[in-house]
Amino acid sequence: MVSPTMSEMTNVQENASDPQLSTQDSRSLASNGADTSAPVDPLALERQVCFALVVAARSVVSVYRPLLEPMGLTHPQYLVMLALWEHSPLSVREIGALLQLDSPTLSPLLKRLASAGLVTRTRSNDDERRLIIELTPEGRALRERATLIPPAVVARLGIEISELESLRTALTKVIKAALEVDETPGER
Amino acid sequence: MVSPTMSEMTNVQENASDPQLSTQDSRSLASNGADTSAPVDPLALERQVCFALVVAARSVVSVYRPLLEPMGLTHPQYLVMLALWEHSPLSVREIGALLQLDSPTLSPLLKRLASAGLVTRTRSNDDERRLIIELTPEGRALRERATLIPPAVVARLGIEISELESLRTALTKVIKAALEVDETPGER
DNA sequence: TACGATTAAATCGTACACTATTTAATCGTA
DNA sequence: TACGATTAAATAGTGTACGATTTAATCGTA
């Protein structure tokens, strides 16, 4: 019994005694003509977009957790390993570009991976500013066990691959749009 | 220049034009023909599902951030306020059920909202274990400013409402599936 | 009705994530 | 070629998340 799933919420929101409970003043920004059938609360509506995104991310990560834990990895660490399994040695900056993470997040994370013996951290000779992250043999070997994870997650979720694919496509579009937003400091 | 967008990655990973958004490298998960060598990297493929979810959540939250900051709210705090604006007084447990968060996360967050003067924290008379969170007049008043947020976010993202709707539907399905997974301790 | 089990919050410890700042190396150009 | 600007990591501080444990109140039932 992990989540009571709102069952006990019913009594709370049933008797919506609260007078100014939504829906009245919210109509004001809807340019409504005669149609009153849309007393849509923009705040309740909106919650679905960002809220669903955040909760979905947390929920799916929690599906990974028990699978990653025996490998000694957190989910962010797993993502870093995925990047490294694909592109052998990478600088911190490059990992950050791939994963959309920055140095304050990656620095301690990479130190943990290093002390777990999965990667090495070496300054570049070319450019002493750059820290080169490279897989150790152990780190490389871990890849084999990791290949079992994706099918296990898909199986547990019980959602069609095709559906996941189209979800990913939609998410990619959102990511692109969101990144463009904060790359545009000029507006507003 | 927020994200250097991989320009220096090109030497590392060939001509993958835009790795962080790559939709095409997950080319065939279809079992194609007689070739059993299946060149599809399940790890690269997989990264798209969870990875896209996590990055999308972070990216969209970062669109909210500059809008919420003048209101003095973080995004999780905004979600709690949304719950409260809808259902006047709630216990910590009820907020947690609505937002899929637990006490270790909510306790300090609610103390911050209280010290910001937006909510009150009172033990229930019915059941001294329950902590009742209630909006203050200031907390209630903040709702008006909050109504401007959703349209601003949608406008900035520049994505059709209908598209966001169907995304939300897909996400809800994923959330449901993921929650059912960790409600099922029996299997495996 | 007493007492073990359950429940609601809080607390502790660890690990991200983000803003702002700092440090050190490299670059551009006068 | 010297020197200010830029860049790559790291650090400091705040705020979630989550597992595990603790504390206090309530419940169930013998």
Rg on CA atoms of chain A, Å: 23 Å
Number of helices of chain A: 8
| Helix-strand topology string of chain A | HHHEHHEEHHH
CATH fold name of chain A, please? Arc Repressor Mutant, subunit A
User: How widely separated are the two ends of chain A?
Assistant: 47 Å
Question: What structural class results from the helix and strand content of chain A?
Answer: mainly alpha
**Biggest chain pair contact, residues each?**
A-B, 90 and 85 residues
Helix proportion range of chain A? 55-70%
Oligomer: homodimer
Overall pLDDT level of chain A: 81
CATH architecture of chain A: Orthogonal Bundle
How many DSSP-defined strands of chain A? 3
What's the CATH class of chain A, please? Mainly Alpha
**Fraction of residues in β-strands of chain A:** 5-15%
Strand order of the largest sheet of chain A: 1-3-2
The largest pleated sheet of chain A is described as:
3 strands, antiparallel
Low-confidence stretches of chain A: 1-35
Specify the overall morphology of chain A.
globular
How many structural domains can be distinguished in the coordinates of chain A? Answer: 1
Describe the 3D structure:
Two copies of one chain form a homodimer. By secondary structure, the first copy, chain A, is mostly helical. Chain A has one domain (42-182): Orthogonal Bundle (Arc Repressor Mutant, subunit A). Chain A is built from eight helices and three strands. In chain A, strand 2 and strand 3 form a beta hairpin. The first copy, chain A, is globular. Chains A and B meet through helix 2, helix 3, helix 4, helix 7 and helix 8 of A and helix 1, helix 2, helix 3, helix 5 and helix 6 of B. The first copy, chain A, binds a DNA duplex (30 and 30 nucleotides) through residues 58, 62, 65, 74-77, 91-93, 101-109, 112, 127-131.
